[in-house]
Write a structure and sequence with these properties.
CATH superfamily: Sodium/glucose cotransporter
Structural class: mainly alpha
Strand order of the largest sheet: 1-2
Number of strands: 2
CATH class: Mainly Alpha
Strand content: under 5%
CATH topology: Sodium/glucose cotransporter
Number of domains: 1
Distance between the termini: 53 Å
Radius of gyration: 22 Å
Helix content: over 70%
Largest sheet: 2 strands, antiparallel
Length: about 500
């Protein structure tokens, strides 16, 4: 396919997405609940599609393919496997109780259970985490626009950010859900079509130690086992406290719908993600036979030089869909957390009292500008895909998952225990981050203090150690500070908080 054909196809797809977002904006009606959680009325097909789209992002497609091609199947497949695991665990344990609570954002849970201080700290950590997630998806879009539209990398990231911002800030979660439904169909068809074409025309030729049966990738540290398990667990557990992920749980029309949507999305995430890991195993051989040297993502080289034009455009649309579907959720979720949980603006503030509308809706839209700019900055600073996804969820895994699960299932959990866990887990993770020369196999270009204590052989272990430190702090401090009478009073306050939400 000629370069201009790719360009026209991408432009048409982007305009279609923008049109759907603009149409969805009609359902907001000036209400922040409609904007943030789609009026809590998403039926199963839309709820499942938007949950699946949250997992199937450009990090789990481009990042997946690049990691599998360089390090082996499990290095890339760890991304969709971890995300699928999270959906399964959330459907099994969290979807029903979290949907039933009637929350607006995930930090609301920390306020209801542990108080305002914990809510504020959790909200700040989540905002930083999701800025990395947004950046990772903008990176993928920047590379795509540079390759197929002829823009600069900076121009590509900026263009994608402006587009996603435009339809997200106008249509909120309604726009996210409807565009996700379209995007996930494209992603599924494009992925399976690409796998079928490459296998039928080139076959599978897997180098020793690189394929799905090379289990040393999961058992031997020298083969990357620590990094691969860190990836699976960071996503499988860390994603439970993802802002956009829980917003989709809250938006389902019932607890049962939320649970079924999680299970459906878990299967769909594997159906889209695993084929990219398989494709990558033969990608280098196919490119060598075609006399092509990959300058950028391996998948882009295949689409430009090997794959038929129509299929290539479909896969490009699938990758772009993945970028858009997660970027819009990251912008919406992070801006809502800043407005609602950091600045403390509650639903309905300013509405019906001469205040000129729902103030939470207004401030959320203003915060979306800040988050979009921050995502562009990080995307320019760290032009990586899969690593940014993992780093973002690493922060949540280190300090926020234990207080969430403990708050739901352990009666002795206390505010002091939650604070101890968040501080101990997060500080430990940041300590390791500053002293580690690599992050999940990629050079640490964000913030590295040269030292002789930690080498690349320790990569992956910080992800596993940090939440354990947080867990120990949570259990010890909660046991020391638990008071039965205070706990009963807290439960009464919880009920009052939920009613107020």
């Amino acid at each position: 396919m000629e370069h201009t054909s790719f360009s026209y196809g991408i432009v048409v797809f982007l305009l279609g997405t923008l049109g759907i977002g603009a149409w969805a904006s009609q359902q907001i009606k000036g209400d922040s609940v409609n904007f943030l959680v789609a009026g809590r009325g998403l039926a199963l097909p839309l709820a499942a599609a938007t949950l699946m789209a949250q997992s199937v992002d450009s990090n789990a497609t481009l990042g997946n393919t690049d990691l599998s091609a360089e390090f082996g199947f499990w290095a890339g497949a760890a991304l969709p496997i971890g995300l699928s695991l999270c959906l399964f665990l959330t459907g099994t344990f969290l979807a029903k109780p979290m949907n039933r609570m009637g929350l607006i954002t995930i930090p609301d849970f920390y306020r209801v259970k542990y108080g305002r201080r914990v809510e504020l700290i959790a909200a700040c950590i989540m905002s930083v985490s999701f800025s990395f997630l947004l950046a990772g998806n903008l990176v993928a879009g920047g590379y795509m626009f540079q390759t197929f539209l002829g823009t600069s990398y900076i121009g590509g990231i900026t263009l994608l950010a402006v587009l996603v911002f435009a339809y997200t800030v106008s249509g909120g979660l309604f726009a996210v859900a409807y565009t996700d439904a379209m995007q996930i169909v494209i992603a599924l068809v494009g992925t399976l079509g690409l796998l079928t074409y490459l296998v039928s025309n080139f076959g599978l030729s897997i180098e020793p130690g690189m394929g799905p049966l090379a289990l040393e990738q999961l058992t031997s540290v020298s083969s990357g086992a620590a990094i691969n398990w860190a990836s699976i667990l960071a996503l499988g557990l860390g994603n439970m406290v993802a802002i956009d992920f829980m917003a989709r749980i809250f938006s389902a029309e019932s607890p049962e719908t939320a649970q079924k949507a999680c299970f459906s999305a878990s299967v769909g995430t594997l159906l889209v993600g695993i084929p990219f890991s398989v494709i990558a195993l033969s990608a280098n051989r196919i490119l060598d036979e075609a006399g092509v040297v990959a300058d950028g993502p391996v998948l882009f080289a295949l689409l430009q030089n090997v794959v038929p034009p129509v299929l290539g455009l479909l896969v490009l649309a699938a990758i772009l869909s993945a970028s858009l579907s997660t970027a819009d959720g990251a912008i919406l979720g992070t801006s809502s957390v800043l407005a609602h949980n950091v600045f403390g603006i509650r639903h309905g503030a300013g509405a019906g009292h001469g205040g000129g509308g729902d103030r939470l809706l207004l401030i959320t839209r203003l915060m979306a500008i800040v988050i979009t700019i921050l995502g562009v900055f990080l995307g320019l600073r760290v032009p990586q895909t899969g690593v940014l996804l993992l780093l973002g969820f690493d922060l949540g895994f280190a300090g926020l998952v234990v207080p969430l699960l403990g708050g739901l299932f352990w009666r002795k959990s206390t505010q002091q225990g939650a604070l101890a866990c968040i501080i101990a887990g997060s500080v430990t993770r940041l300590f390791f981050f500053a002293l580690m020369p690599t992050m999940f196999g990629i050079d640490n270009t964000l913030f590295y203090i040269p030292n002789s204590l930690f080498t690349i052989d320790f990569d992956g272990f910080p992800t596993l150690i940090s939440p354990l430190v947080g867990l120990i702090a949570f259990v010890v401090v909660s046991n020391l500070t638990y008071r039965p009478l205070k706990n009963e009073q807290r439960q009464e306050k919880v009920l009052e908080e939920v009613q107020n939400l």
